[in-house]
Amino acid sequence: MEINGFKEKIKVTVSIGVAAASSKQGIDIHQLINKADMAMYCAKNNGRNRVCQWNQGESSG
Fold it and tell me: How many domains does the chain have?
């Protein structure tokens, strides 16, 4: 993505980690945030402009 309005164009990239769970899965909010963080680093490690999802039962994002 390019942002205009500056003297120079600014290029922006995004890495997103996603995690979701139901209350029945026994995961508290801190664990869920940790899983989303793991998924974000998975996205960062796989290149620019990526989204990775954490799935229950996987050890990484």
Answer: 1
User: Considering the domain boundaries, does residue 9 fall inside one?
Assistant: yes
Please tell me what DSSP assigns to residue 12: -
- Domain that residue 11 falls in: 2-54
pLDDT tens digits for the chain (61 residues)? 667 777 777 788 999 999 998 878 888 899 999 999 999 999 999 998 999 999 876 554 4
Q: What is the pTM of this model?
A: 0.72
